[in-house]
């Protein structure tokens, strides 16, 4: 794993393939998920967060109830400007707090 100071993940559907490596993380994590996402199910999110808890890692988990998969990409039909704006503000605050 890379020695990152912080990491942000927007609706990463591939997280299940690396949950067994949570113990190797060295930095706080910020996760964003769309509550209306049909690709990443609540069970998938629960598995990711469970692996973080079990590994004793620092994380923030945000599920945007009204957003779908790809809510932050203005090239997609699922683009949700309000969710994009809110999560971007959280991303900047998270990075500012962790990249000192």
Description:
The protein has a single domain (7-98), classed as 3-Layer(aba) Sandwich (Rossmann fold), CATH 3.40.50. It has 100 residues and is of the alpha/beta class. It starts with 6 loop residues before the first strand and ends with a helix. It is built from 2 helices and 3 strands, in the order ββαβα. The mean pLDDT is 94.
Number of strands: 3
CA radius of gyration is 13 Å
CATH class: Alpha Beta
Q: Report on the biggest sheet.
A: 3 strands, parallel
Q: What is the share of helical residues?
A: 25-40%
CATH architectural grouping: 3-Layer(aba) Sandwich
Strand fraction band? 15-25%
Helices and strands, in N-to-C order?
A: EEHEH
Strand order of the largest sheet: 1-2-3
The DSSP helix count reads 2
CATH topology: Rossmann fold
**In total, how many domains does the architecture comprise?**
1
Give the terminus-to-terminus CA distance: 21 Å
Structural class: alpha/beta
Shape: globular
Give the uncertain stretches in residue-range form: none
The CATH superfamily appears as: Alpha/Beta hydrolase fold, catalytic domain
Mean pLDDT: 94
